[in-house]
Amino acid sequence: MTRAVFFDVDGVLVHGYHARPELTRRWNENLLADMGVDPDRFTDEFIFDIFIKKVVVGETAIIDALERRLPRLGYRGSPMTFLHYWLSHDSTLNTDLIAVVRTLKAAGDIRLYIATNQDHTRAQWLWHTLELSELFEDIFYSARAGVPQTRDRLLRLHRAAHRPPIGAAALF
Q1: Which residues on adjacent β-strands are paired with residue 140?
Q2: Residue 47, exposed/middle/buried by CB under 10 A (0-12, 13-18, 19+)?
Q3: Domain for residue 23, yes or no?
Q4: Number of domain units in the chain
Q5: Residue numbers in the chain where pLDDT is lower than 50
Q6: Segments forming the whole domain that contains residue 128
Q7: Beta carbons of 101 and 7 less than 8 angstroms apart
């Protein structure tokens, strides 16, 4: 029987926000000093608004959303520069878990996937720049599917893309 393991990105494969505050590694810790944008306002006025409502489900490109919202937050630079800052500061791989993934891949009897809430740009960054494509067969992400990540939706997406259905799957 083929087995599959699905890994989430934020707080799992990539250190970042975590359910346990002591394990959180905030990408935006120096955002105000580095880019002149208050991280709390950015979270409230960008992340919890257009990002979650439109960008993560693929309805609006992240660069377009940043271009519209950053001026209101006091940022006057290029949205491309801001996006690069964000991507590069939100990319600390969980090396302990990556070592486990490498071991699973080497075993050869488990199919490895990523299932995550991401926009198209960050998904590409994760896949190519962080080279997660070398470890995983595919990345199923919310903007690609046009829906927010849920376990049921992503399992249905996997089954539709990779017949026969997988006998056992684990989600992390």
Answers
A1: 115
A2: middle
A3: no
A4: 2
A5: 163-168
A6: 3-17+92-171
A7: yes
Pairing of strands 138-141, 168-171: unpaired
Hey, is 55 helix, strand or coil?
Answer: helix
* 77 and 102 within one domain: no
**66-109 tens-digit pLDDT:** 999 999 999 999 999 999 999 999 999 999 999 999 999 999 99
Question: How crowded is residue 28: how many other Cβ atoms within 10 Å of its Cβ?
Answer: 20
Can the peptide bond before residue 164 be classed as cis, meaning omega within 30 degrees of 0?
Answer: yes
Q: Which of 124, 134, 33 is nearest to 84 (CA)?
A: 124
Please, are residues 123 and 39 in contact by the beta-carbon 8 Å criterion?
Answer: no
Contacts of 42 (CB under 8 A, 6+ apart): 28, 31, 73
pTM: 0.84
Position of tokens 């684990």?
170
Same structural domain for residues 85 and 96?
no
Residue pair 51/41 in contact (Cβ under 8 Å)? The answer is: no
Longest dimension (CA), the chain: 55
